[in-house]
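Project standup — Tuesday

K.O.: blocked on the structure for the chain from last sprint. Re-posting the sequence here as requested.
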Amino acid sequence: MVSVAASDDGSAASVVVQPPLSQAVGYIVVVLIGFLIAFIMVFITRVLKKTVGEDNEKTEMFMTANRSVTTGLTASAVVSSWLWSTAMLGSSLVGYVNGISGPFWFAAGCSPMIVFFAVLGMACKRKIPEAHTLLEIIRIRYGNAAHIVYMALCLINNLVAVANMILGASAAISALTGMHIIAATFLLPVGVALYTFVGGIKATFLTDYFHTFVILIILCYFSVKAFTIPEVSSLGHLFDLVKAAGERNPVAGNEQGSFLTMTSTGGIYFGILHICANFGLVIMDTSFFQKSFSASPKAVVPGYVIGGIAYFAIPWFIGTLASSVVLGLEDNPIFPTYPRRMSATEVSNGLVLPYFAMTIAGTGGAVGMLLITFMAVTSTLSAQIIAVSSIISFDIYRTYIKPTAGDKDIIKWCHIGVIFFALFASAFSTLLHYVGIDLGWTLYMLGVLTCPGIFPTTFAILWKKQSRAAAIISPLLGMATGIAVWLGSAYALYGAVTIASTGMILPCVYGTVASAFAPLPYSLIITLIKPEKFDWANFRNEKLALDLPSSDETDGQTIATVASNSENGVLKAEMATSDLSNQPHLKRWARIASAWALATFLGHWVLWPLPMYAAKYIFSKGFFAAWLVVGAIWLWITLLIVGFYPIIDGREQILDVWRALRKDRAAKKNASTTNSGAASIEGESGSGTGTETPSVVEEKVI
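H.V.: unblocked you, prediction finished:
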């Protein structure tokens, strides 16, 4: 677990921090706001169906949004996919423990692989454009045995990821409101399950956008508010506070014990652990594949590149600012735990960021933090829930139970999957809580379980020579190797295999690295022993997409709308499919994605941090100020990208919806006028001779 020095009086429990908000506020946010957002998303889903033909009773729309999502919405969804509550809570945690290097390595462990995923996403677009899930690709190439193995790997990945975010979010909500942690654990997924149940992947995209925009507005507010309190007042004074904190409580493994250096043993350990674990989380997370399948071909690469680069500022800047303020003000009476430091349990539960918000903005900060936590966890939960429901519906039901399943059956099992996984994830997170596992433990060890599929999955998409045996055996051996190294290191270093010892950073680093890289030689050796060569054209031989809806399946209003605008779901799907025939165009995007992935990795992992690490540089006051100013500017640019780019990029569909709604309103008004006119004529005829026939009345109306 995270090791934190005890308080001055030796008692970590000498001061009990009371929740700044009431339980009622917690339930209002978690339940009422959750349901409100869900109902808004349901309403928007129905409007989109009526106006532009996006029918979520059709599988292609429910699971892939007709493969037509624009660049802006894709970029927003990518940021949201990694804007876990634990991203903000975790980056602040490692900043508190390791100093200024922690948040940087947290961010550097996220952005490069998000950009790298553009390479995989574009490869999938080129080779198997009708896919709905990663597992369909595995099954077609390697058969059912591999399909089952990778299904287990993906489900483990999704479950561990969800448990990590729920544990962190429920602990933060409990600390802020006093709400029982188990109540938060079970109630958080309720609203998510509701709008995902109805709206599918498009509702996930739209909710991602809304939640991420709100979160970034609050974070930008915190970035300004922190310097308005007298105790901080300026960048220079904050530097002095952090420098003094390092002198009071020097960090073992940091240059001169300072918090203000990239030369940190704990920081570099965490960086290695985090980048390996996150490569596993991205590549084995079927929700990332679903979002790339849902994006239009021309939106995949720019969406993932823009989203990956924009995301970097959030954990880097917010983690740095929050941990710096907390470290600097722990000995100040305005800090919640004063006169003691934060306890190891508080730190490991991810409470650095909530205490930062409470310190700089009091009750208002607590409310903002509550909203951030709630929206971050529900947004990322929706992606995980839809991903698992797709596995249940496509990769289990449609593959092994009813291969002839149509829209109705698949949507039914998607709904079952949504409900099942929401309940199961809550129950599993509750189990972890009661055995003593928290955010810090899952943050450090999850890579042991998520990493074994990195190289085998990448090879399955990019390398035609990986054999079936290699694809099946190498991730299993890799996981066994990683677990053995993890547990063995915990025993060798700490004399016992316990929750405490297995949550320490060194065993987790060794286990994660072994789990990530052991499958590479395993796969190469097994492939050399029994080589194979796959023909990418085989992906095209199996029809995966369900039939697109025909015009006679839509009602009269939708037909009229479709006739006046060209943005209905059928046409968008046809346009997306037609783009895929332009292979040179897609190859160019693939080259661009590869170049950006390499540049992002070199920038974030080599050119920027390593010279500072090797030089043993300790930040000066001016450099510290510049570090935070650049981070703040980057954060505000991220706000503009996430908040306004999707609106600008999607303006045509927004206008189409507006025109369709106006046309529908005008049609209803005309119909009302016609009906009242007919009633008036009918009344006049009734007061006359009474001999006019209905046909005569109709002629008068016309």
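K.O.: great, moving the ticket to review. Residues 677-701 form one domain. The chain has two domains: 45-64+72-547+582-649, 677-701.
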